[in-house]
Amino acid sequence: MKxxxxxxxxxxxxxxxVTLVCTQKSDGSPNLATVSWWTYLSYNPYMIAFAMAKxxxxxxxxxxxxxxILTIPGAELADVVLGCGSTTGRQTDKxxxxxxxxxxxxxxxxxxxxxxxxxxxxHLKEYHExxxxxxxxxxxxxxxxxxxxxxLFAWNGYAQIRPVK
Length: 165
Ligand SMILES: Cc1cc2nc3c(=O)[nH]c(=O)nc-3n(C[C@H](O)[C@H](O)[C@H](O)COP(=O)(O)O)c2cc1C
Description:
This protein is α+β, with helices and mostly antiparallel strands. It is built from four helices and twelve strands. Helices cover 16% and strands 45% of the residues. The strands form three sheets. It has a seven-stranded antiparallel sheet, sandwiched between helices. The chain has a three-stranded antiparallel sheet with strand order 1-11-12, covered by helices on one side. The structure holds flavin mononucleotide.
């Protein structure tokens, strides 16, 4: 084996998971951001975690509102995943810019994109500084799924978004 960088390792571990992190802005309008760095943490109780850059507006809203929905996007959302991963909601209405159709989630006032395969409704438990990111550790309140959707993954590092099959 030869020594490589951690970014190179994340490229070699492709396909990597991909989520759309759904939050509310301060005015209550929706924001979405693409996040690959997430993981299941515990089944008892249900817990997950994800890491977002300190500069992320979504992260700021999670710290402010303590609520967030992580979704696994279906194949129709490939362009949305790339768009929401390359613009910040701080200045942009991503829902309008990328023409994202949203749907309600029972028991939550955060909307999620139509064609989501899985929706994990979370409450922020704690967050920690980890280098240039914050790690958000969340309690899971509800989980929903549409098993007919074909989940997207990030390929070639984070350059391409497509399903496994
Ligand atoms: C495939 C892909 C995966 C990404 N994964 C992450 C991630 O895990 N953590 C992160 O902070 N940003 C990630 N990003 C970048 C954010 O989505 C991007 O910085 C976005 O503009 C943040 O939006 P916000 O400021 O509205 O939160 C990813 C982008 C792409 C395209």
